[in-house]
């Protein structure tokens, strides 16, 4: 079975979501279904059908999280020796060679990616161009607008 890379923070976030869904949301939905069932005819009971639909979505999400955690290869980058090389989990500061604009990204698993938080997927074009490079190297990223060169300014294990 294929293992998928995930940071410690990503695994923790999934575990917290799983705990919330199983300990808070699931019991509340069961209660809502019981209350709606008492309202009478189930064929025309919108509250009952809405609660059952919500329950189905929550149960599907719980199974999805369990599967993701079961197939996760959790990588704690803070325990890996710092070599200046870009690897999964590292936080990388890069500078556009043309404009000198600097940006910082953490390379994370597909499920954790959130560009607003500076987290890019390991399978994204920019991450694929950076992986394996070292501080001072130039990575060429193929974009729809053409090739962009980025210099790797700093690699951090945080």
UniProtKB/TrEMBL annotation:
> Which parts of the sequence belong to the Transcription elongation factor GreA/GreB N-terminal domain?
5-74
Keyword check for Ribonucleoprotein, yes or no.
Answer: no
Q: Establish whether keyword DNA-binding is in the entry.
A: yes
> GO MF terms on file?
DNA binding; RNA polymerase binding; translation elongation factor activity
Mind listing the UniProt keywords for this protein, alphabetically?
Answer: DNA-binding, Elongation factor, Protein biosynthesis, Transcription, Transcription regulation
Which residue range or ranges hold the Transcription elongation factor GreA/GreB C-terminal domain?
83-156
Q: Its domain of life? A: Bacteria
Q: Name one GO biological process term.
A: regulation of DNA-templated transcription elongation
Signal peptide location: none
What the protein does comes down to: Necessary for efficient RNA polymerase transcription elongation past template-encoded arresting sites. The arresting sites in DNA have the property of trapping a certain fraction of elongating RNA polymerases that pass through, resulting in locked ternary complexes. Cleavage of the nascent transcript by cleavage factors such as GreA or GreB allows the resumption of elongation from the new 3'terminus. GreA releases sequences of 2 to 3 nucleotides.
NCBIfam families with a match to the protein in the record: greA, PRK00226.1-2, PRK00226.1-4, PRK00226.1-5
Entry protein name: Transcription elongation factor GreA
Species of provenance: Pseudomonas segetis
Q: What is the lineage of its organism?
A: Bacteria, Pseudomonadati, Pseudomonadota, Gammaproteobacteria, Pseudomonadales
